[in-house]
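4.2 Preliminary Data

To establish feasibility before requesting continued support, the project team ran the inverse folding procedure on a target of 104 residues. The structure was first converted into the token representation described in Section 3, and no sequence information of any kind was made available to the design step. The complete token record follows.
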């Protein structure tokens, strides 16, 4: 390889790494996306080992983070701001959001 192709390959790698870093979503302290940093957190552990973290803004429930004793973390949201977790008509349980990738 000559110097020109090595420099081009290095530049391409750098651009790819920067692009991936820009796409990463990193909310503060593993909190849910779209909540202000001053949201009040309340954490409790259920009898089965699940850890439930509720996020409230001005006393109103906005999101719930569930860390099951087995399985991935998932989030439930109140998207319309009425203080209760949203669900679509006919859905039981509510719509669940899984975080598939996270960079720190």
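Position-by-position output of the design step:
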């Amino acid at each position: 390889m000559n110097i020109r192709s090595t420099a081009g390959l290095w530049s391409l790698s750098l651009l790819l790494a920067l692009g991936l870093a820009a796409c990463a979503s990193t909310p503060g302290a593993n909190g849910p996306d779209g909540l202000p940093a001053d949201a009040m957190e309340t954490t409790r552990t259920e009898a089965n080992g699940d850890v439930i973290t509720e996020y409230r803004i001005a006393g109103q429930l906005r999101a719930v983070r569930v860390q099951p004793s087995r399985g991935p973390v998932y989030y439930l949201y109140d998207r319309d701001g009425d203080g209760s977790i949203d669900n679509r008509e006919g859905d039981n349980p509510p719509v669940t959001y899984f975080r598939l990738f996270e960079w720190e």
